Recover the amino acids of this structure.
């Protein structure tokens, strides 16, 4: 009996020694690491690899010494269908006035899949191309109202331009809520000058399409300083004129063929600017704005003729002009 008890004690002691050794091994840590650090690294790795569906820029792989590259989503949104906008009050512009920046969560930008570096001379570098893809007023009017509500803009619709963040002339999506926002101020405005400048650089081969798209989508104000000039040279307000005026620069002048045209007739806007420059006119009627494009001839002159329809009699229609050489000017007419 005593012998059996002694053997049991020896066996029990052996078990205890094994358990003690196992516990010591489990308690050891590799130098420079800790269980909590390991757990943290696992969580961070999982978060990094998780896909994102937020409408934002996607960083491409790049070396640590290189600047990050970015790409924007291509759009499949129809230009003939009113697109749903972000919820009211969900967007917040950065800054105020003409130099405000869009909320990147709501308006990161989106691209037209038909426009690539290989197709620019069949698309955006062809005069009149943007007319073929621009949504109608019937589509953009309710979109603009909803977009202003999303941004919490209290002023009237005429105080904002429903603007393509990446402009159509730079391959921006025509009717995607990710590429449209209520930009403070009418047109022309500083961003219009930047768009025209970048368009010219892309089409003459001085700048790649992707670089232009990234510059204007990431921070158009910074891009303006880089490609156009100091933001301090531009007025913070847009002043409407009721008479034909000389340009803000000697490189752009605009006038109309008839200051008091009959309703239902035609109007011709004559613009004098840099030879060969693209020209865009924005005709601001009481409730809508129409756009018409042209190109200055060898002497720097273009004449753009359009039907004025049947606008409000006695209401002075402002005509804003923006040129590919980065200049702007204006004129006006009053239908009778």
């Amino acid at each position: 009996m005593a012998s059996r008890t002694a053997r049991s004690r020896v066996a029990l002691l052996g078990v205890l020694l094994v358990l003690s050794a196992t516990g010591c091994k489990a308690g050891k840590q590799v130098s420079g690491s800790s269980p909590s650090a390991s757990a943290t690294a696992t969580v961070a790795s999982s978060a990094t690899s998780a896909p994102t569906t937020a409408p934002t820029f996607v960083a491409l792989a790049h070396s640590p010494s290189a600047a990050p590259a970015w790409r924007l989503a291509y759009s499949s949104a129809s230009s003939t269908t009113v697109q749903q906008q972000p919820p009211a009050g969900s967007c917040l512009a950065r800054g105020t006035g003409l130099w405000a920046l869009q909320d990147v969560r709501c308006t990161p930008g989106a691209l037209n899949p038909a426009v690539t570096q290989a197709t620019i001379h069949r698309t955006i570098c062809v005069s009149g191309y943007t007319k073929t893809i621009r949504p109608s007023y019937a589509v953009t009017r309710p979109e603009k109202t909803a977009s202003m509500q999303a941004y919490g803009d209290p002023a009237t619709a005429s105080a904002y331009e429903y603007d393509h963040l990446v402009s159509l002339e730079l391959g921006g999506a025509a009717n995607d809520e990710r590429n449209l926002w209520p930009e403070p101020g009418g047109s022309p405005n500083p961003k219009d000058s930047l768009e025209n400048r970048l368009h010219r650089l892309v089409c003459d081969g001085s700048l790649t399409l992707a670089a232009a798209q990234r510059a204007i989508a990431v921070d158009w104000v910074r891009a303006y300083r880089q490609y156009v000039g100091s933001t301090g040279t531009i007025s913070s307000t847009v002043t409407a004129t009721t008479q034909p005026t000389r340009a803000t620069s000697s490189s752009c002048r605009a006038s109309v063929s008839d200051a008091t045209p009959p309703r239902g007739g035609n109007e011709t806007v004559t613009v004098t600017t840099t030879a060969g420059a693209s020209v865009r006119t924005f005709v601001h009627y009481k409730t809508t704005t129409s756009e018409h494009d042209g190109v200055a001839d060898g002497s720097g002159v273009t004449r753009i003729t359009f039907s004025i329809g049947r606008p409000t009699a006695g209401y002075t229609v402002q005509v804003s002009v923006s040129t590919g050489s980065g200049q702007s000017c204006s004129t006006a007419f009053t239908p009778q």
Summary: Residues 194 and 314 are 34 Å apart (CA to CA). The chain has two domains: 70-233, 253-333. Residues 70-233 form one domain. Residues 17-69, 232-250 have pLDDT under 50 and may be disordered.
